[in-house]
Design brief:
Helix content is 33%, strand content 18%. It is α+β, with helices and mostly antiparallel strands.
C-alpha cells in the first residue's frame, strides 16, 4: 500500500490533463494489433523450441527496421535476473530458483512476452514521431492466447509477486501516450506469434525474406529491472508542468509542487499543457505526449 501511494502521489501533484476523447472513453482502436506469445517448457513434439518469447507487429509500408518480429529464449533472460538479484538490495522474498524453467509457469512466460512487445513498441515511439502519433490516443490491442494475462492487463492488476510490478509499466505507458491497452484472447491456432516461438523464424514482407531477431537489449534490460525492482517510484523526475503562452507560443517550465494541496488550498489545475517525461529505459530518452 505504501508503495502504491508513493507511486500515485507525484501523478496527482502535476494533475495531468487528458484529451477529451480519452476522458469520454471514445478512443479509436489501432487497426493493427500487437501479437505476443510464449512456448512452455513441456516436452512435446508440437513444442520444438520450449521457453521462447515472441513479439510481432507488422504494419504495411514501413522500413524493415521498424517491424517487430523478434524472439528471445527465457533461458537467456534468467542469468540477467539472477545477476540483478545478486546486486540488488537483498530484500526480496523470492529466490533465484523462482525464475528457473522448472518452476516458472506458462502464464508468467506469456506476461514476459507481452512486456517485451510493449517495450519494443515504446522504443518505436521514442525513435519515430510517426509511430508516436500512430499509437497515441488509440486503443492498442494486444492479442494473447492466455486468459490469465489478458485479465491482468485489462484489470491493471496481477496478484502474484513480483510480477505485479509490470502492471506499473502499462499504467505509465497509458499515461504518456494517452492510450488504452486492451488484451484480447485468441486461440493458439489463430495466434500469429505462435509460429515464431516454434522455430519459424522467416517471414515474407514486401517480397523480402525477413528473419527474426532477438529483442533489443533495452527491452530485455527493462524487463529485468522492472520485474525485480518495479518502476522507480520517484516519478517526480518524469513530470514537468508547462504553462503555454498562446500568443507567442512560448512554453514556460514550472517545477512540480513539493506537496499535495490541502483541501482548502489553491487549485493546481493546469492552464496550459502537462507533458509527461517517461524514461522507462534509463537512458534519458523520453516518450513525450503532446496533448
Amino acid at each position: 500500500m505504501k508503495r502504491a501511494l508513493e507511486f500515485l502521489k507525484p501523478i496527482f501533484e502535476v494533475d495531468p490533463a487528458v484529451h477529451i476523447n480519452y476522458f469520454l472513453n471514445l478512443l479509436p482502436p489501432h487497426k493493427i494489433p500487437l501479437w505476443s506469445d510464449a512456448s512452455g517448457f513441456e516436452i512435446d513434439s508440437k513444442n520444438p523450441t520450449p521457453g521462447m518469447l515472441g513479439s510481432v507487429f507488422i504494419p504495411p509500408f514501413v522500413k524493415t527496421s521498424q517491424l517487430i518480429w523478434k524472439v528471445t529464449a527465457w533461458k537467456d533472460i534468467v542469468p540477467l535476473l539472477e545477476r540483478e538479484l545478486v546486486h540488488g538490495d537483498n530484500s526480496h522474498s523470492w529466490s533465484r530458483s523462482d525464475f528457473s524453467p522448472e518452476n516458472i509457469t506458462i502464464c508468467f512466460l506469456e506476461l514476459a512476452a507481452a512486456m517485451l512487445t510493449l517495450y519494443e513498441m515504446l522504443l518505436l515511439c521514442i525513435q519515430s514521431k510517426k509511430f508516436f502519433k500512430r499509437f497515441s490516443r488509440k486503443i492498442i490491442i494486444m492479442k494473447i492466447d492466455n486468459q490469465n494475462v489478458c485479465s491482468w492487463i485489462n484489470k491493471g492488476r496481477c496478484p502474484f509477486y513480483p510480477w505485479h510490478h509490470l502492471m506499473e509499466v502499462f499504467f505509465l505507458a497509458e499515461l504518456a501516450l494517452q492510450c488504452q491497452f486492451k488484451a484480447i484472447w485468441v486461440p493458439s491456432a489463430k495466434q500469429f506469434a505462435d509460429r515464431i516461438t516454434r522455430g519459424e523464424l522467416n517471414i515474407t514482407y514486401n517480397n523480402q525474406i525477413l528473419k527474426a531477431t532477438t529483442h533489443s537489449r533495452k527491452a530485455i534490460a527493462s524487463l529485468v529491472k522492472h520485474l525485480v525492482h518495479g518502476v522507480d517510484i520517484k516519478l517526480s523526475d518524469y513530470f514537468e508542468r508547462f504553462s503555454a503562452n498562446k500568443r507567442r507560443r512560448n512554453v514556460k517550465v514550472c517545477s512540480p509542487p513539493s506537496r499535495l494541496p490541502s483541501s482548502g488550498g489553491p487549485s493546481l489545475r493546469l492552464r496550459g499543457e502537462c507533458v509527461v517525461k517517461l524514461d522507462l529505459f534509463g537512458d534519458g530518452r523520453f516518450v513525450f505526449p503532446h496533448f
